[in-house]
Write a structure and sequence with these properties.
single chain; 252 residues; alpha/beta; Undecaprenyl pyrophosphate synthetase; 6-stranded parallel beta sheet
Length: 252
Amino acid sequence: MARPGISPDPSHSGGEPPAPRHIAIIMDGNGRWASAKGLPRTAGHERGVEALRRTVEAARDLGISYLTVFSFSTENWRRPAAEVNTLFALLKAYVQRDLQRLKQDGVRVRVIGQREGLPSDIEALVERAEAETVHNTRFHLTIAFNYGSRNEIVRAATAYAQALADGTCKGPATEAGFEAFLDTRELPDPDLVIRTSGEYRISNFLLWQAAYAELLFLDVLWPDFGRADLENAIQRFHERERRFGAVTPGAT
């Protein structure tokens, strides 16, 4: 039996296999898309928001229950201030424009990452989006913003150690106990992690949670990503054999 959070590869009796339950995406390539077209990087980020809208709609239609996207990393603070401000403004615009529609469509919005250091208006907007969609269950959209997996693990480990020390949690320490302190504690582990733009790394994204995820690296730049690319990714996922450390039945 797989540990909680891992979705074993189901058996099927014909027909199309189900979509992966949880897909996580590193949305990469906005800047290169803009540069290739002679546009400012901000134009690439704006088109990237359009790609996110397309992907959320396609994921829901294709039977995916959870979608997690990497929007702004803890390392992105090193970028020029104007670009950082643009990314903040785009998150704000996305939530303000789409929140009502997401609510009506049954989408629950979560934002994971470190809240400390975010502008107060962004933090308030994040809290509003989460509060207004908390009872939705049709589809789960998680936005990793000001997120870094190492930072998340350190925060979780510190909180778990304190809980064990003060008796809030009973020892001994376990993986399940630790996971209860991660930002993703309410989410299943991703089945598939996609990175666009042709880069072959996961860049400090869901390091703990992606331990048994299938990894897929696509050449398409994020602003060009759409339903056909998502369908292709799901098809390639189905071609993988997921064993979770076990041996395939009948293998010698």
